[in-house]
Amino acid sequence: MSWPGATARQIARAVRRGDATATTVVAEHIADLTADPADATAFGATREATALAEAAIVDELPDLASLPLAGVPVAVCERFAVTGGRARLGSAATTLPVAADDEELVRRLRGAGAVIVGTTRSSELGLWPTTDDGGVVPVNPWRSDRGVGGPSGGAGLAVASGAVPLAIGQDGPGMAGGVRTVAAACGVVGFSPEHDPTLHDDDVTRWLAGTPGLLATTVSDVAEAYAVLTRSAAPEIGDPPRLRIAASDRPLIPPVPGLRGPLATPDDETRTRLLEVVRTLTDAGHDTHRATPGLGPRAATASFSAWAAAAHLRARRFDRDRLQRRTRRLAAIGERSVQGHWYGGLLGDGVRTREHALEWFASGGFDVLVTPALPGPPPAAAGWSARGFRDNLRSGARTAAYTAPWGLIGLPAVVVPVGVRDDGLPAVVQLVGRPGHVSLLFDVAAQVVERMKPRRYPPVAGRVA
């Protein structure tokens, strides 16, 4: 069996049983990703020799038979520290030292038997829903004139191309929709865990630091990795009970200040695919309704302010003259806002926006909300990092219209592929759940995928569909 293209669960099961070695699995993935220049653009740095040495160690572990991610090759966004590497944050301005230790999430992955094969490209400081870096423009494996989204575009490409079965990306407020924006562009599963702003004790810096998100080609792989990161038991994916599900194709946040017109308008195929998903859920026995959440009068301000403040907080450690022009402008807006003394109210706005969302779920008795993940095709494969602030703002506002609000609010959300559009790009939807109901959200997401049977990989990847 050729291991590139296998799921994380398939690989781990084979390694635990002795049907394959971690060394063989990792070697095949490294050979595969280095053989294709397009796939290799997903990575800022690869760890060929180190990963093979670490895989050999996994093969000798006495508890190998109990490791949930035994021998699974994993890519980690360059935002996170991996021993021996530099967390570049997608920027030439970063001056972080070589990491002497792994970030906690990386330690947990290794503890579960995973092998880190490389770090993947991101947009600068995790701020933008497009990914290109130093003249390198990763292209969408479904259609080469389109990009891979952002901020963790390299992680999405690594999974979509089959270079790895599992990747870790950036998520949370001020992250341009996080891994869900990337998953939507690349046609993979992207999960944003719940993060509650009320738990940050008025620490806006901690809130805006974000949280890891997960990318894979199956819901079960995402669920397994989430259990590893949270040190919890992996949920058994199964058919959910009858649920009350809302569906809406309306963007939730008004236009960005200074931009005229609606933030995003879904194209006809996006609407059609959403209706297909609603029919599928209805046929599965669920009670489906057309309903749009109201997020309150401060939602637009909170969303834009969190983004700008995140830019300021992340940029202040580095030489701003070396930052990209678009990032300097956004960070300057965030800095002026801090000096204007609204900074202390930012977390409060985020909390109130979350409360409005929770009240909507409760008053309607809804268990899940289903929306588009993108309004249409992802942004073009281009050098967005060299373009001006306004071009990036306009494109980003459209691209992250459906995903960014839930990064601010912090409810668990997952993007899943549901087919292929007429233009050759993946058709995707977003599912948002209630707090504390991640397992139920996984069940619904898996049910949608099982019934709609999308391809796991684009045809050009040469993988089993």
**Assembly type of the shown chains?**
single chain
Biggest sheet character: 11 strands, mixed
The top level CATH class name of the largest domain? Alpha Beta
Structural class: alpha/beta
Q: Gyration radius, to the nearest Å? A: 20 Å
CATH-defined fold name of the largest domain = Amidase signature (AS) enzymes
Proportion in helices: 25-40%
Shape: globular
Mean pLDDT: 93
Strand order of the largest sheet: 1-3-2-4-6-5-10-11-9-7-8
Q: List the helices and strands in order.
A: HHHEHEHEHEHEHEHEHEHHHEHHEEH
Tally of DSSP helical segments:
16
Instruction: Give the percentage of residues in beta strands.
Output: 5-15%
Number of domains: 2
Give the CATH architecture of the largest domain: Alpha-Beta Complex
Measured between the Cα atoms of the first and last residue, the distance is 16 Å
Care to count the β-strands? 11
Structure description:
Residues 46-437 form the Amidase domain. It holds the Pfam family Amidase. InterPro entries: Amidase, Amidase_dom, AS_sf. One of its GO terms (molecular function) is catalytic activity. This protein has two domains: 8-297 and 345-461, Alpha-Beta Complex (Amidase signature (AS) enzymes); 299-343, no CATH class. With 465 residues, it is of the alpha/beta class. The protein has helices at 8-17, 22-35, 37-40, 48-59, 104-111, 153-160, 178-186, 204-208, 219-230, 268-283, 299-315, 325-339, 343-364, 389-399, 404-409, 438-452; strands at residues 43-46, 73-77, 115-120, 166-171, 189-192, 211-216, 244-247, 287-290, 368-372, 413-420, 426-433. The protein has an eleven-stranded mixed β-sheet, with helices on both faces. α2 packs antiparallel against α4 (48-59), α6 packs parallel to α7 (178-186) and α11 (299-315) packs across α13 (343-364). It is built from 16 helices and eleven strands. α5 (104-111) links the parallel β2 and β3.
